[in-house]
């Protein structure tokens, strides 16, 4: 949502064209961020299965966190069988 | 009545509820959803019969609560349907959150409300507690005094709601039991006249798979305020639209509506203000008072939201005294909602003295004699300057 749109131009009744959630970066809601220790990570993808957003990016053998959308719920850290994910407080 | 106007209509005797159902049938609605049990009125029972008998080609959706009824109608309206529901009392209270969704989504829904008291204690009879409870929900709000007005307003409601300058839901209220269950004669427009007047719904939000959009979206600090400001403007726009629809309907039917109904007001010094079936009784009381030499008049409220600010300002500033009768109580407030609207309209150029009476809660009857008593007591209290609180008429112990 552009912050320059006034009430005169804004779409009727709070309706918007599709696809806007992609532009809405929910990563800034986060208080703690998950950090993967790749020494411990075995690429089992349990975190990928459990992430409710989904904010675990899986690319071939690579696993990483999508910090644009990760809300920091910590489920991945809780579920990781290798304790490879640590929740680290965000800097203010 | 003009002969041409008469040729467009027929005389019919129905209850207030059936007058609404008849108007909704003629409006050729696409979807009706309702909770079919108490506190529902037989508006929807009659409509379900019309649908069953093939007199109305609509989808009738029975649901398990009023919250679901309005929600189903919201969905239908979003799909582009002309949609209707009806309720009363606790049913309206149960719809509360969906009321705001309907107006916020800018849906031209029409709802009938047989105005009744709210619990506790449990009561099924008429007052205006439910009606005033939805005051700030963003709905256009009308009140019909009897079957004729209620029928006419129901038809006009669709025209107003669906105007592209408005796109807001409309509630048409009428007094529970007194109007809803009493059979009276009235003029109904012929089916083809209503069809031509309303046409089919072509405006407002409409879900389109070819052009997908999100409805009912999350809008936080960066945009919610703009949406609400735009919605406020739609209500402002409705003032002009209502005027135009009243005008056009008057040309067709010969019945010319105004937001505020006046009776013997031109030279009146003391004016009684009321809403609903009481207005008719008040006219009778004023007739009697006039015979006794009193310069009395009546103003009946037909259009409550948008509050007719300009009309109210011109009209109410003419009087010396205004006695407001309200079938609702607002505990802890300076006065009832109608008093506050009139006071806010006249401020700060206000030389008019006003007094507020709560009466008729839970269906307690109001008679011509009762209104004459309110008039005399109200006038006396105003002249003594005792207008600092709400007065109660007809309650034991007062």
Description:
The complex is a heterodimer of chains A (92) and B (398). By secondary structure, chain A is α+β, with helices and mostly antiparallel strands. Chain A has a domain of 64 residues: Alpha-Beta Plaits (2-Layer Sandwich). Chain A contains two helices and five strands. In chain A, the strands form two sheets. A two-stranded antiparallel ribbon of chain A has the order 2-5. In chain A, strands 3-4 form a two-stranded antiparallel ribbon. The longest helix of chain A has 5 residues. The radius of gyration of chain A is 17 Å and the shape is elongated. Chain A starts with 15 loop residues before the first strand and ends with a strand. The mean pLDDT of chain A is 92. Chain B has two domains: 251 residues, 3-Layer(aba) Sandwich (Rossmann fold); 134 residues, Rossmann fold. Chain B starts with a helix and ends in a 5-residue tail after the last strand. Chain B is globular, with a radius of gyration of 21 Å. Chain B contains 14 helices and 16 strands. With 398 residues, chain B is of the alpha/beta class. In chain B, α2 runs parallel beside α8. Chain B is 41% helix and 20% strand. Chains A and B meet through β1 of A and β9 and α10 of B. β1 of chain A pairs antiparallel with β9 of chain B.
